[in-house]
Design goal:
The structure is a homodimer of 292-residue chains. Chain A has 292 residues and is of the alpha+beta class. Helix content of chain A is 47%, strand content 20%. In chain A, strands 4-5-6-7-8-10-9 form a 7-stranded mixed beta sheet, sandwiched between helices. In chain A, strands 1-3-2 form a 3-stranded antiparallel beta sheet. In chain A, helix 2 crosses helix 4 (56-68). Chains A and B meet through helix 1, helix 5 and helix 6 of A and helix 1, helix 5 and helix 6 of B. The structure holds a DNA duplex (30 and 30 nucleotides).
Chain lengths: 292, 292
DNA sequence: GGCAATGCCTGACTAAAGTCAGCTATGTGG
DNA sequence: CCACATAGCTGACTTTAGTCAGGCATTGCC
């Protein structure tokens, strides 16, 4: 704990201050950060508000000032929220892109200024340790919560889940042939659906069905590529088990496909034991159970 | 480099923002930071100015506001700068100490909030990686510069140097019996004196004498306990060699005491070879030379 | 003892950051 | 088609942060 505290102080204060200094070039920091966040690809106003955590009025004013400086233009959104005429999008002008490139360059300068005084060995150790810290901090920022399975973020996860297994199963995946699962099955009291988010982006999900008779059943456990290996799957699994245990279930079961090696490994190391086939799931090759 | 950049973004933005939020409890951040920095032991105004990097007038005003809130008192310094009637010292009142304790507690909360979602193994890896990052970042923040040997920070290093060798040499250390070295010997053009600082605190030093005839000579190489093992000594040594090489010297020499094991190891691994005794230094047991 | 330097303080500013209430245009669900 | 929500904008503020020029007492140095 002491080392976390020291880290927070030393690193965020010192590196943070440096970062700000490199970022703001004459321009107020708020504007510089905003310009950076818009990026060459442009960004919707609402997204910027979320990422930077700014007040709507304040953000609007900042956008206005960047626009006055000729760095950005603001127009109707053409991206994902295309149709909605209320949503607006900020895009860099040529001057804005040039300025953004300077910021990008300075970001490199900052990295260089940290690495230069060190020996080769120290550099390698520092980058390795930074990578580790970053990954683990991201892991610790993942929040898991119960949501209705109809939640748009849950839907997005489920779509990604289906896309992935369709790609990984030997014979593809046709939802019509698999055991169906209606939203109600994952809604209290029949069950629950958990969503894992990182900085409010959905990065994983999992559902549990609380069957009237017999063990509870875990379904639709999925973790986004970007956060694999961070223990997110295991955390979701644990919370699903916890959910069932709290409601009096003595065991949980699940089925899985032989191609999902990491998942199978995780089940085994989480205390699941392989059991005989207990359902007729078309795509399953292994069946597991864990006593709670 | 990319991992340094990603680290800077993720860590300073996310943890930095959290840190600020935890720190400022209703109070402006500047005041909270200042209160924290004063600490239960109190602090001199000049020290606070240095540590927080604030303008003298601004700091004065912040102190005034904390005083008005009954959290601190400001009086004549009683610490190291005791005699000087101009120096003033801030001390926490009972209310201030209570408030400080709350900040301390919140600092723990933040650390806890980072560690809680992780598994035991991840926690260990995170704290280890944080420790590594912190040390290496500190190392990279060490600045080495040429200063007159009369500089108060250089003097402080030399005092620490003498104190340390007096303690480590078998038969103590009496400056009168050692080869004397006047300030002029470390002042251009006769030589140079380097000072290493970390956040403007002196943490190491070293001098080189540019003898009229024969190799240059390195003396008074010292590194503070707190930053040992960070490669600071090796950097100072390298810069001293560089200084001599630039001025046409083909070799540098130095003598050392048999008890200074780390130093001897560093000389050897930096390319120094042991040579026969070349001076009458009372406290030396080994003599080294490196061809530049 | 006089004079420059130092350490801290005050007054008078400015700019940046952030808040809040209300406004307009667009979209949505009955 | 209406009521109501949502996305973003504007005006009118307040607070925080920070700068700069001078001022006063104390110290250090010839």
């Amino acid at each position: 704990m002491a080392s976390v505290r020291r880290f927070n102080r030393t690193v965020t204060q010192r590196v943070g201050a440096l970062d700000d200094e490199y970022m703001a070039r004459g321009r107020p920091l708020g504007q510089a950060r905003l310009l950076w966040e818009i990026g060459p690809a442009g960004a919707e106003v609402a997204a910027l508000r979320g990422r930077l955590g700014l007040d709507s009025g304040y953000l609007s004013r900042l956008l206005r000032s960047l626009e006055a400086d000729g760095l950005i233009t603001i127009g109707p959104a053409i991206g994902p929220a295309g149709g909605d005429g209320r949503v607006r999008e900020a895009r860099l002008t040529a001057a804005g892109r040039a300025e953004w490139a300077v910021l990008d360059e300075r970001s490199d300068d900052l990295a260089r200024s940290i690495l230069t005084p060190l020996s080769d060995g120290q550099r390698d150790r520092l980058t390795a340790a930074m990578h580790e810290v970053e990954r683990l901090l991201l892991a610790s920022m993942v929040v898991i919560e119960v949501v209705p399975p109809g939640d748009p973020r849950a839907r997005a996860c489920l779509r990604a889940y289906v896309r992935e297994i369709a790609h990984r199963f030997d014979d593809g995946f046709d939802p019509a042939l698999s055991t169906p699962a209606a939203d109600e099955a994952f809604t209290a009291p029949a069950g629950a659906f958990l969503l894992a988010t990182l900085a409010s982006e959905p990065v994983g999900c999992g559902g549990v069905k609380l069957h009237r008779h017999g063990p509870a059943e875990i379904k639709r456990l999925w973790v986004a590529e970007a956060v694999r290996g961070m223990g997110v799957g295991r955390r979701i699994l644990g919370e699903l088990e916890h959910h069932a245990a709290e409601r009096g279930y003595a065991a949980v079961r699940l089925d899985t496909n032989r191609n999902l090696h990491e998942a199978i490994r995780m089940y085994r190391s989480s205390g699941y034991r392989e059991i005989p086939q207990y359902n007729a799931e078309r795509y399953a090759h292994h069946w597991f159970e864990k006593t709670l």
